[in-house]
Amino acid sequence: MLRLITDFDGPIIDVSERYYRVYQFCLEKTRRPEQTVNELPKAEFWEFKRRRVPEKQIALNSGLDEAQAQEFAQLRRQTVHTQPYFEYDTLAPGAVDALLKIQQAGIDLAVMTMRRVKELDYAFKKYDLDRFFPENRCYCLSNDYVKTRDIEDKPLLMARAIEELPAAADTWMVGDTEADITAAKKHDIKAIAVECGIRDRTQLELYHPDLIVKDLSAAVNLILESKSFT
């Protein structure tokens, strides 16, 4: 049996609009009433995120001062994973077709995400995605989980998945961040990084994934064509 474990945000869901709306909200909340700020265009903001420019630096580049930048970063952390902002998430182009292709090929499919249960359920219902991921193939955080850092939390999810899932002859992990690559490599699973998410190619290369491809569709095509697929 061949298995594909995929991250959710990035490969399947485009979060760029959510992150940008939160940026706009935090900028507006933090600026003084008469203060002129420099609201970044979405493309420039998202490029900063993909390059891992710190939140404080994004705030400073937007015209806030040092104290405001600190406040902005804190407000952003409190806001980015809350309703109503999840409403701005959209399906990544081609993601559903890629999931259908994997499903039709009979490959075991699991999702592994830093979303909490309620956040994953929301997106599943909105986009009818639970048809691809039965409950015993969903690895996410409990609603009351106290997060540390993704790069530390995600390998713990991977360890749980390896313990619980049936044995597979070959397993691939697809994701868009250093946490995905680290979780895969720590457990000797092949890591495919996708460039359609929140990290650019330069950031992904720092963590030495086995492959870097454009998106989930490209990753699926590669897996299907691989010698591992029998």
TrEMBL record:
It comes from the Bacteria. One of its GO terms (biological process) is DNA repair. GO terms for molecular function: phosphoglycolate phosphatase activity. One of its GO terms (cellular component) is cytosol. This is Haloacid dehalogenase. It comes from Nostoc linckia z8.
